Amino acid sequence: MKSEIVILLLIISMVALSSELRIIPKPQYETLKPLTFVAEKKLYIVIGKGCDKNIGDILAEDLANFAMQKEEIASNFLKKVQKPVIFGIPSLDEDIAAFVKEKGIEVPSLPREGYLLEVEKDFVVVLGNDRDGVFWGMQTLRQMLKGGKGKLEIPGARIVDYPKLRWRGITDDVSRGPIPTLEYMKNIIRTLSAFKLNMYTPYIELHAFNFKSHPDMSAPGEGLSPEEMKELVAYGRKYHVDVFPSLQSFGHSDKLLRKPQYRHLAEIEDSPWSLSPALEETYSLFKDLYDELAQIFPSPFFNINCDETYDLGQGKSKKIAEEIGPANLYLKHITRLYEMLKAKGKRVMFWGDIALHYEEIIPKLPPDIIVLNWDYGGAPSFEWRLKPFYDAGLEQFVCPGVSCWSHIFPNFENATVNINNFVRDGVKYKASGMLNTTWDDDGENLFGYNWYGIVFGAEAAWRGGNINRKEFDSRFDSAFFGSSTRIVEAINLLSQTNNYMAPGMSPDAFFWEDPLKSLEREDTIDKAREIKTRAEKALKILEEDGRKVQKNKTVIPYLIFAGNRLSFLADKLLGMSEVVSLYNSARENPAEGKEKLDKAKEIVQNLIDRLYQLRENYKTLWLSENLPFFLNNNIEKYNGLIRYLESKRELILKAKDALGKNKEIPPFS
What we know:
The chain folds into three domains: 21-161, 2-Layer Sandwich (Chitobiase, domain 2); 167-467, Glycosidases (TIM Barrel, Alpha-Beta Barrel), CATH 3.20.20; 492-660, N-acetyl-b-d-glucoasminidase (Four Helix Bundle (Hemerythrin (Met), subunit A), Up-down Bundle), CATH 1.20.120.670. It is 47% helix and 14% strand. It has 22 helices and 17 strands. Strands 9, 10, 11, 12, 13, 14, 15, 16 and 17 form a nine-stranded parallel beta sheet that branches. Strands 1, 2, 3, 4, 5, 6, 7 and 8 form an eight-stranded mixed beta sheet that branches. The relative contact order is 0.07.
């Protein structure tokens, strides 16, 4: 009986402990201990030889939340320190190696980027075989810090951890609307690093970079600057994030090719999209651009893109395509760009969609080129995409997406399945990395919406897929927001609204659509009610818990804005449906018309007032992330909808005037 009680108490103890470690990415192996490391007022930090010296500065930011200070101690004074927190590579630091031996710490064999994190009552050690491993262990430790004013607590644990994929990062679209400020890109870098992502690549179409060799390609403020990118590269290095270029080098060049001085480079000048591979000047241009970017970005990686070449071989290169075939024309272009960059010591990447379309060229691709294999659907399997490149012996990255583009709020219901299954299958087919994607197709997207999908991708890439979303959600608030809130529930409610958007159009397009046209679809009212229910539940959670978050507080206004925008969409549809009914009733029964028209006007005016507020909130959020460029394009969408609603208000006022003069009220249109 006593033994059963002991076992039960142990189980209860372990359940209690398990709630303490809410870490993302979830470590590969963790053992919890019924003890706590406690420090008061000051934390003594030992940073061993070969480790990042900025570890202490990063931790100091967290310690400030607990009114704690740090004191850094050299490893040769380790024996004089009580309750040290040690970061070290034992093979490079004999003092740390001696401490490990004295304490009997069992250090396992660790792969690249792996680490051991051990928390005892009197010390904490974070050990690795390389700088990366120790740095990632520090990022895990940051998520374990608890306590209050002047007191720090770390739950007892032994964690052995390492990534399943060597490269883990995101592609950030900086070309089709939002151009992030340098400070916001630094914020992105810091947050990626906090969740052990180690790659960041800005997606650059040819008009979106201030090239010194071709200054007429973009105007100041309409593209990334070389000086800022150099600074971002250096900043990324401090956080173990490799910043490398992604320059569109074939299709998606329409904005540049519409400029009169570049139109002659288009494959089809009347409908510019791709640069023509039939023109030698195309390659002279890329030589200049590659020379410049290679100096700015020292990374070994360089993405030439070359996806979605819809006009391949249909214009100036048509004769060549007829002679060698469009597949070989594409291969010829890829190979020529590859050779330019290979000479500069770069590992060339390209999107794999066209090669999959022309599978006969896959064995002919340069053997050390990296395929960026992309797909954004929530499919149960992606093996059909991966196997052709695997069979050819080519290195590949899996490239899922957060489903944010052209959405009022990202469709994480789709994105999590896409990310999880693609990464899982990528591990099976020996993919070396993951680049999660955040596109801005219609130019409206705010990056602050995307973090749940990005962090889910970080977990999938670190662990190799097979992520239980419900279990992931149980850790998300603590890991990302630093507190046990219900924000993740609000995120999921906002995401679920994507199930109730109009068919055949993007959610953004549905938002801007003439509501009278929307109401012609039979199920619009039912969908509006579903959207409203979820948006209002999310907003209530955000109101109650939004002030409780400890980290990444700036994300909360984005979630609130998304909830308000979704609520407005629902009320626009429900409200205009009621307005039409009230207006038609006034026409049919003029004796009761004034009261009904007043009610209709009140509904429309309320929508107008809310839309003005949404417009100002959007502007504020945009400028907190981005340069002013392109903002007016989106503000004009708000202005257009405001003008539409104002025209309906004027129609109602004219109807009231007609009613007062005993004239016939015109139809509502």
